[in-house]
Hints:
The complex is a heterodimer of chains A (100) and B (562). Chain A has 100 residues and is an alpha/beta fold. Chain A has helices spanning 25-36, 55-70, 82-91, 93-96; strands at 2-8, 11-20, 42-53, 74-78, 98-99. Chain A has a single domain (2-99), classed as Transcription Regulator spoIIAA. In chain A, helix 1 (25-36) links the parallel strand 2 (11-20) and strand 3. Among the domains of chain B are: 145-324, no CATH class; 424-557, GMP Synthetase, Chain A, domain 3 (2-Layer Sandwich).
Amino acid sequence: MNIEFKKENENTVVDMEGRLDTNTAPDFQKELEEYYNAQGFSLILDFEKLDFVSSAGLRVLLLIQKKSKALSGNMIIKNVKPEIQEVFNMTGFSEILTIE
Amino acid sequence: MIKIIPKLVYSLNVKKGYEKIKRFDELTKNAPEVNKQLMLDLVKRNASTEYGKKYHFDQIETLETYKENVPFSTYDDYAPYIERMIEGAEGLITNDPIVHYALTSGSVDNPKRIPVSEDTVKNYREYATQYSFAIICRALEKNWKKWKKGRGLNLMEVKFETLPNGLFAGSISGRGVYSIKDLLFLMFTSPKEVVFPKEIMDSKYAHLRFALTDRSLSFICSAFMTAVSDLMKYLEINWELLVDDIEKGTINAEIKIPDDVKKQLLQQIKPDPKRAAELRAEFQKGFSDPIIPRIWPEFRFVHAIGSGGFSVYTDKMRNYLGDIPIYFSIYAASESIMAICNEMESQEFVLIPDSAFYEFIPMDREGESEETLTMDQLEIGKDYEIIITNTSGFYRYRIQDVVRVMGWYQKCPKIQFVYRLNQMVSIAGEKTTEECISWAVKEFAKEAGCELVDYSVYADTMISPGRYVLLMETAERLSKDKHDEYREIIGEKLSIANPSIGKKVKSGVLSHSEITFVQEETYALYRDLMIHRGISGNQLKPVRVIDTLIKENFFFALVDKE
């Protein structure tokens, strides 16, 4: 999976490309650590080029969501492909995450 | 000094426990009479309650009149009373003071709130702590290494909400921990900020952060083995981070702990490079040899419910424990502690005759008769639905558990939990229990040569005829090319576990069973999600039957399709 970071105003935008799965989730988590551990963080995950999210990927998203509560942060996921949106809907993640 | 205090506290507990063993041995000599008398005392004590008046408790003087006057009950029968009790009403179902409401793990949307009297808490305290520690101590001295009574790691957290009547609601195991709150920090390594969390935090990290620094840690206790196994898995993945923190006296910034709590925890932490070096050396050798005795040389036992549906997790724990034994704790529910192990490593539980009154319905009985048996009428090897009258105001309560009689301890049955009635799968009357599924899945894993992470069963009635779908998560992904072979194996194993399935598949009443693999970390994700939704980690049980739309959607969305 390729990840690119860019700054948009106060937000850190993360462009994600490929698959967020067992193989890529640990690195993804590591790369995002410094962002989601900051008080009041604001992350936008752009899923436009992301094709797949597995259980391991969902665990990382849940972790960041939990951090956002603890650190008064914010995570928005946008441009979600229908097949990933379907997984979010079925697993109950669409009620937990902020998806635009 | 720090080593002397836990030793004194545990020694005192064990001393009380030996007295409890003596008392228990006296009670079990006469168990059927003790048990019947408990029922008569409860009825007498509660004759003036609303429930007592409704069912004429004042006229009950024998078991027969009790059965005639009082119908079987379920939670729904008590729910209207409990609503009023929560608002402050008293004397509705019991005259004994209610001190707590146990939130059950049964339903995410609408958890039950089970009243708990001081008597019930006392039974939990005396049996689940004092009695059990004495049994453990005795067994270790006899057959294993002597317990030096160092501190333990307690994974039972206390998360309570306050009800309008001022009482707490939370898990029953949490209430047990709360009842020894003043002694807790002398007995266990985790500080109060971790045991009584006010907000969600990385509790696995927090528990381990303190337990690892204590070289003399002597045991781990938890409500269920799931939590212990998850903790060890976490350690396997995150040991470097934990050891770094121990070395430097820090808490890594990526760990989610509220700032004020982190500040308080850091005050209790000092850099410990010596211990960190010792731990690092052991972790670097890997986890293939049991890690627990290498990092905690005085570790002597695990105390957790780990039989039946939890056995997958118990099997995993053996890899971490080596020869260190497990005490399988209790057979209990929010409504009552019902039975207890009286031997280390035994997975049979002796009914506790002074904790609840027990009635039994044989599972092999034909027809709809509701005639019950008492403990003296049970037969070894047979399965029975257990019905309890507890010390907190539930009478002839169908707890929905089926138990098997394994033997006798004096005049008291030794039982094993077999399955929950509402967790039994039956598509065409074949009645498949959790036990059958568990056996079939484990046999499958042996034959397929895979390591099982977790599993569930789903009754698929969307196709006709219906079929069993086994969902499994394995440690390594299995070859797609062998799917048909795996399907054959699971079909065969299910048919051995429950021959009725085999017959029904052959005769076309059921379709051939199916096997499906879910993605790695699916079951861990489910547990994460439940905890995120506020379910206490103490209460998380394995998902054995996919019996709700929520579970169905969740697990089937995460099937490994690649």
